[in-house]
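Title: Prediction job returns without error message
Component: structure pipeline
Severity: low
Priority: P3
Assignee: unassigned

Description:
Job completed but the reporter wants confirmation the result is attached to the right record. Sequence as submitted:
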Amino acid sequence: MSMIALDLGASVAAEATVSDATWAGHAVQRVSSLPSLAADWNRLEAGGGTTVFQSYAYISTWVALAAAGHGETPVYFVGSRDGVVRFILPMAIVRRAGVSVLGWLGQAHANYGMPVAEPGTFATAGGDVGDLLRLVARLAGAAVVHLDKQPEEWRGFANPFALGAGSQASANDTFVLELGEDYPALHGRLFSSRTLSSLKRKQRKMAEVGPVAFNQPGDVARRREIFDWFCVEKREQLARTGRGSAFDDSEIQSLYKAMAADEAGFQADELTVGGERVAVGLTAYHAGVATLINTAHVGGTYARFSPGTLLTHHMVETAHAKGARTYDFGPGELPYKLEWSPKVIGLRSTTVPLSWASLPLAALLRGKTWAKRVVKRNPRLMALVTRLRSGRAAS
């Protein structure tokens, strides 16, 4: 992905190694300058072993526009062997209850937290990832390690950061569909002729209201205008159930507007009826993977036409046409994702206290993860929470 690599005002010459150590035959260094890592970072991510949320383009944009506002102090660790950089850990220190906590950089908003490395790097390294985490935490001066939203596997390789000591299942799983080369055949296998006929009928009925168009604008200003509409509609949609929208955050809005400058890496799709926008979907592209960021659609008159479903089918087809061979629907179990029969990948949270004094905070972080998981994976409890939220929104 080539979204936008922001100049953070630092040069390679300004890079400074803070401390050195070793892990499994790798020299491990804490590095202060993000731009000094650009060449190695881009080389490693090109191997497809990580997600768009660890791409240099995304991380540099996050650091420039949103990290400070979310209480993150970026810290980068580099593992080298035989003079070659083998992995980069994009991490951040946050303060919680006066304690320094080390997590993945951007995990306040990103779908996933992972290292930057070629596939299989850690599986063949021969070292305990837990030892690596304790090492980098010491170098960062952190008292607790808390790594969230970690996929158990990615691109066919297990993720040892998600599966080691101190890990537990997160509230959500994520849903990933392999598109293959023959998209029409895949689409025909996944959806019955009856389902496809129903969708075509809904689109014809919608066309009776006004001309139906699926648009994927190429100019930056239009993509940003679509994003603005998305933010408003998402706020109203979530407010009806008593929830707030992460996209109301001004720094998050700045992040996506910066991403919108790169047509190859970020796309805003819209469905219009008679020129009126009724559904929007945001997608990021990276290393052959199309990642659904989020969607929003209007209700009322158009709800019976399933505009969100129609747009999703168009977006997946378009992603394949653009060269994506994997479609990542992202975390959270929702009916429209399950309709595509995607692979379910568990997400995990890893919490490791590094001192006796940090045990209470580590226990609190683990407890919050446990409580969220219990509620979200229990339909009755989730329905109760939804009713309570809706009641507060209506009062």
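Comment from assignee: result matches the submitted record. Confidence is low (pLDDT under 50) at residues 1-19.
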